[in-house]
């Protein structure tokens, strides 16, 4: 039996807004997003005598991780049993892409362990991910700010059409509400089905904001331009989803914190996906720390989990180590 162990670290992502939720311009959804250094999902996978799935040190009966592993094994025609240990999980149903990143981390880990080429697009389709957004797949092979082109007629996730690095000095202020969850599963499908038609003029304006303000702002390191574009996108998309989620933000506490940050110099406030996680951008670490201190002094940080995070300009990190013989040898197999 192979003694190799593959370790995978998959980043969280912010969904900064849909381009055309209703498909009035010809392709439905489309989106812009950002990979984050933290939080992340980390796991290890190795061959074993029987299937074992551990999550945070506790053996589980399988759950979604076990189901993904079983489906991948069948699709790839593998005859082995595996020990899968999910050592770190990002908050579930919080708008950070936890479900897609877990699924694709397992797929990447299994493929690397068995010497197979990565195929995140096909694996996402197999595992039921990427039905609306191609951003989770995009952040397997690279990081930064990515734009996907929306869902056409293909069964694969939407294609990546742009990717730019996120300035290293900029910071994300991540505003999370512990124990709260955004829509997911059947509730999410029902919410989408009940939404009104998204105006073609709003879709056109969002596409203009992405192409002519957000992306040039990144290249020119103009946070005001980038943040202004994201804020306007968020207002339009949030207004569209307000009937389902109770407002532009799902959480009133997160909304209050983000509005305070905006009023005191932060840029580009919004909510990632269905939330409840909110975000804002600061030009550097010191500015982010001052904003966070002021927010806490105002009493708006209580009960919230607020973190200062760097953007991530690389994709999923994969390493392989051999535990055969007297010592371990580790090889880095990063994807981008």
Question: Care to give the gist of this entry?
Answer:
The chain has 336 residues and is α+β, with helices and mostly antiparallel strands. The chain has helices at residues 63-76, 98-113, 120-126, 135-141, 185-194, 200-219, 223-245, 252-263, 285-297; strands at 4-20, 29-48, 52-55, 58-60, 81-88, 145-148, 160-164, 171-176, 267-271, 278-282, 305-309, 317-322, 329-332. The two termini are 30 Å apart.
Architecture overview:
This protein has 336 residues and is an alpha+beta fold. It has two domains: 1-166 and 324-330, Ribosomal Protein S5, domain 2; 167-310, 2-Layer Sandwich (Alpha-Beta Plaits). It has helices spanning 63-76, 98-113, 120-126, 135-141, 185-194, 200-219, 223-245, 252-263, 285-297; strands spanning 4-20, 29-48, 52-55, 58-60, 81-88, 145-148, 160-164, 171-176, 267-271, 278-282, 305-309, 317-322, 329-332. The strands form two sheets. Strands 1, 2, 3, 4, 5, 6, 7, 12 and 13 form a nine-stranded mixed sheet that branches. A four-stranded antiparallel sheet has the order 9-10-8-11. The chain is globular. The chain starts with a strand and ends with a strand. The model has no long low-confidence stretch (mean pLDDT 91).
What is the quaternary state of this protein?
Answer: single chain
- Calculate the mean pLDDT score and round it: 91
Number of strands: 13
What's the gyration radius in Å? 20 Å
Distance between the termini: 30 Å
Under CATH, the topology of the largest domain can be stated as: Ribosomal Protein S5, domain 2
